[in-house]
Amino acid sequence: MEWKGIKGSILEDVPMKRYTSMRVGGQAKYLVYPQDEADMTAILRLLREEGMDHRILGNGTNIIVSDEGLKETLIRITKMRYLKFAKTKTGAAVKVSGGMPLKKLIRECADRGLAGLEKLYWIPGTVGGGIKMNAGSFGQSISDTLEEVTVADRSGRSVRWERKDLDFGYRKSPIGPDDCVLSARFVLTERDKKEISADMDYVCNERKRRHPMEYPSAGSVFRGVNGEPAWKFIEAAGLKGLTIGGACVSEKHANFIINLGSARAKDIKNLMERIKTEVYEKLGVTLVEEVELWGFHG
């Protein structure tokens, strides 16, 4: 493959366990880091011309990659970072790149006394990934303060959407899996810095108390059902501590599958299937994955 005209760095045969929070997964043939938005669209156009499929990769915090690896080219947006603030009457508008870590954005806003995202603190992904899945916690969703988003589609065409034209739902957005969030604009309000900091501390402490942060994981595995969190059903089915290979249903939070150190992707996938089967057989509840499964067949 010739990467003619591409300015960013290109890695070959990369082990995905290094690039995912679950620390599992085989190799990807190509991992490309666009230098900027123009480079990003150039990469997409080149891949389309070559007939090559791609996936967009951020911090890899919500995906499980197959042990067989990936045939698609991965485009990792984490080196595309910028942050611009513009004052408004009630606070500020914030334009941020899709590759910016969500935690860093929230800290920068908090330092300026700007509120509206602080309850999302400690969600480990990028801004772009957060928007694509409409990330949320403690009653706040990323789409609540979103004003507009600029997306590159799979053909390399850049499109800007206003929030009013986008239909967000629980952990879902209209942005396609092959689309890349180039940038987003949020409208935030002024608030006392100490109050914002207190909310962030609360979120941080609650996550440490509730979540098994001492082990590799991909966060919540299943979506809630009819307003009820998935962990309630998994716990009611008596599945806490269930282990397959090196993958285990956390004793601390039943909707987390943790890597005890030797897990393979197939262990995690098999454990997910076992959970779904037992919850349905015992409780009549169908669980749907919140994490994304990459490279699995059948």
Task: Please tell me about this protein's structure.
There is one protein chain. This protein is an alpha+beta fold and 298 residues long. The protein is 25% helix and 28% strand. It contains six helices and 18 strands. It has helices spanning 37-50, 102-111, 127-132, 193-210, 230-236, 265-283; strands at 9-15, 27-33, 54-57, 63-65, 73-76, 83-87, 91-97, 114-115, 136-137, 140-141, 146-152, 158-162, 180-190, 217-220, 243-244, 247-249, 256-259, 292-294. The strands form five sheets. Strands 6, 7, 8, 11, 12 and 13 form a six-stranded antiparallel β-sheet that branches. Strands 1-2-5-3 form a four-stranded mixed β-sheet, covered by helices on one side. The model has no long low-confidence stretch (mean pLDDT 95).
